[in-house]
Amino acid sequence: MKISRFLIIFGFISLNFIFTGNVFSSPSSTKADAPSAVMASKVSMVGNLKWTGWGIGKSHVGDLKIQDGFWEVKSGRPVSGGFTLDMNSIAYEKEKLVAHLKSEDFFSVAKYPTAKFVTTNIEEIKDAKANEPNYLVSGKLTVKDKTAPVSFKMNWQAKGDKVELAKASFEIADRTTFGITYNSKKFFDLVKLGDKLIEDRIGIAFELKPSESTTSL
User: Fold this and answer.
1) In the chain, where are the structural domains located?
2) Domain 38-216 falls under CATH 2.40.128.110
3) Does the pLDDT of residue 27 top 60, yes or no?
4) 0.85 cut: is pTM over it?
5) Long-range pairs, 136-139, Cβ under 8 A, ≥24
6) Less CB within 10 Å around the terminal CB: N or C of the chain?
7) Pick from 152, 166, 169, 205: which is nearest to 77 by CA?
8) SS3 call for 171
9) pLDDT above 60: residue 1
């Protein structure tokens, strides 16, 4: 009887070693789970963009609708984002100018109904004062069939993890980068252009606020 009991105990120990690598498993030998990383959330944004164009002694200010705007956010901070511009929504007080801007002289809206901006890098600006730009945003802007790098300073406002506002005001230095050459001094004689000259810079100002759509990534 003692021999049989010994064989049973020995067999149990042997099986335990084969399947676990230990004679007896110990709760203290199990590694603790690593703490979970902070998850990013995708915040859908809605808003409007104002554009400014300059000529000789004059300027024009109009609007564009932003669609499909979003920011990926971690702990209340932006880590990536982007938006699409509805080029058919170009608005200005004079319809004649709107029609011209939509034509092949400028944005060829019939062929390219949208423009798009996507971030490539976002850096926090240290010691930024309240209501002043606190992030440096770099990205790629696609207008018509041309894509070029764009950077700007952005004011990001959030309370804890809740995003409240993202806004920026900057200039695109050279519209001809995107194939928009109409009455540019780079492509036309200044003397012949006279007061028809249109500056190559374009002013951009946008303001985005969260919509109701927020999803975890």
Assistant:
1) 38-216
2) yes
3) no
4) no
5) 137/78, 137/168, 139/82
6) N
7) 166
8) strand
9) no
